[in-house]
Amino acid sequence: MAAQFVGITMGDPAGIGPEISLKALEYHQEYQQSTVIYGSYGVLKYYHDALKMKTPLARIDSVGDFKPGCINVISVVELEVGKDFKIGQVSAAAGDGAYQYIARAIDDAMKGDISVVTTAPLNKEALHKGGHNFDGHTEIFATLTGTQTYTMMLWCETMSVVHVSTHCSLREACDRATKARVLECIHLADDAMKRLGKPSPRIAVAGLNPHSGEAGIFGREEIEEITPAIEAAKKEGLCVDGPVSPDTVFLKAHKGVYDIVVAMYHDQGHIPMKMMAFDSGVNVTLGLPIIRTSVDHGTAFDIAGKGIANEESMLYALDLGKNFITQ
Q1: Of 69, 84, 4, 6, residue with least CA distance to 38
Q2: DSSP-derived secondary structure for 55-123
Q3: What is the pTM of this model?
Q4: Which of 34, 36, 13 is nearest to 82 (CA)?
Q5: What does each C-alpha distance from 251 to 81, 156, 192, 241, 285 come to in angstroms?
Q6: Where does residue 49 rank: exposed (0-12), middle (13-18), buried (19+ CB within 10 A)?
């Protein structure tokens, strides 16, 4: 089946993932006709009933069994609320379930049954308790697809960011800012923007140190690693600027000077994006053989089960995934 189906993985069952997955399809029915949820039918039925949703749930075995007019669910792992886990609490069963949903969706995407995987949030502690020692979604997708070169991109309507490193200590992040890795991320950023309709994207590369090292006074990483990567990219014809001082580069990007920023580490890129677009930001894994988009927030255990979770980021993630398909 080749069609342009999107698979939502419902994330950690104890978090807000099941709720926002259902809300995205119940209250925005334009998404229903080409989307399936990978999760636990019993958990989704619990929320479906609690939220008094009108669109019927349909349990299907594969995308080939898709039933129009329903919220279609591929029940990967059978879990029950209150029996196998408690809402808002870390558990091994929920962590394992979250992993199994992802693994099944990736397998279907690699076979071509679905065109995009859009992920709801998982909890890293639960993931580890469930026996899956990954840092997060990005590393799971890279491992299960056999991808060596990849990075995380955060996207919102006014700015995009890719990361040289993400889930590691700040001390280790400094060591990962090598010429080879920075150049790799420039290429990934350029390709992503072109796929999203910008034929000559303007890329800014952030410095690692305050004031981009101030000519070596505050560190030599810009001189020895980052600038050589930028110069190599320029020789290839890419539109790259930098290293731009980290304290101004995101403001310039937000004002439209740049289309995308290459950030050196997790918090350098995440803090400005979450300040500007916490509910509307989207996480994308670049470099994969499949398309993966995600909400840009966590499991929100504090509000899970209360019926107040906002599905806005999930809707943006679904839209961006379709944009990658159509370009």
Answers
A1: 6
A2: SPEEEESSGGG--TTSEEEEE-S---BTTTB-TTS--HHHHHHHHHHHHHHHHHHHHTS-SEEEE----
A3: 0.89
A4: 13
A5: 44, 14, 21, 15, 24
A6: exposed
CA-nearest of 177, 175, 165 to 138 is 165
Sequence-distant (6+) residues with CB within 8 A of 210 are 218, 245, 246, 247
pLDDT tens digits, one per residue of 53-75: 999 999 999 999 999 999 999 99
Using DSSP bridges, classify how beta strands 260-263 and 203-206 pair: parallel, antiparallel or unpaired.
parallel
**What are the helix (H) ranges across 130-257?**
137-145, 170-176, 179-195, 221, 227-235, 246-254
Six-digit token pair at 312? Answer: 């806005």
Q: Which structure tokens are listed for 168?
A: 């590691």
For range 145-156, the mean pLDDT: 94
Residue 53 and residue 36: Cα distance in Å, rounded?
17
- Strand-pairing partners, residue 155, are 160, 282
